[in-house]
Amino acid sequence: MNKTPTRISLLSLLLNSETHRNLLLKVLKEAHVAHDITAERFSSLGHLTFSDDEMSVEGKGHNQPLHISVKCGGYMIARVLIDNGSSLNVLPKATLDKLASIDAQLKASPVVVRAFDGSKREVMGEISLPILIGPALFNINFQVIDIRPAYNCLLGQPWIHAVGAVPSSLHQQVKFINNH
After folding, report:
1. Which residue intervals correspond to the ANK repeats (predicted)?
2. What is the pLDDT of residues 8-21, one digit of tens each?
3. Ordered alpha helix ranges (H), 59-168
4. The domain 59-175: what is its CATH number?
5. Which of 44, 46, 126, 132 could bond to 71 as cystine, CB 3.0-4.6 Å?
């Protein structure tokens, strides 16, 4: 038996399905659009959402930090901490040493880092690395520090804000609109 794809218009669906019609009305009632937004700006809005379906098995009962895996050159870097409380992107020296074949120069950096305990840590330098996160490649500036943290790399506010990323430790995901 041949199957023919069904073609249903959105209007037909809304007219014939009370469930879909009510759901659309609910979404439209809850939507907020600024009164002074232009049509051009409205059409270019991006939307990022997280749903309960995307939560980990532990659900709301976990307190895990948000870690992802990224690629730099041909190297996979696991345990990359996404920290929207950090004002720096940090690359521990030990991680940089593992990326020895990456052609990038360590530049001088005037930054002095203050740790949680109030102690000061000197930055060895700053380095810009090509980092692949999902399908998108970013050139990210890192402060290189000789520390032994529980993570291999830290992406903080500079990266989060630059790409408009939305991290959710609850969902254990970070999302961003890929304009590349």
Report:
1. 61-93
2. 777 887 888 899 88
3. 93-98, 157-163
4. 2.40.70.10
5. 132
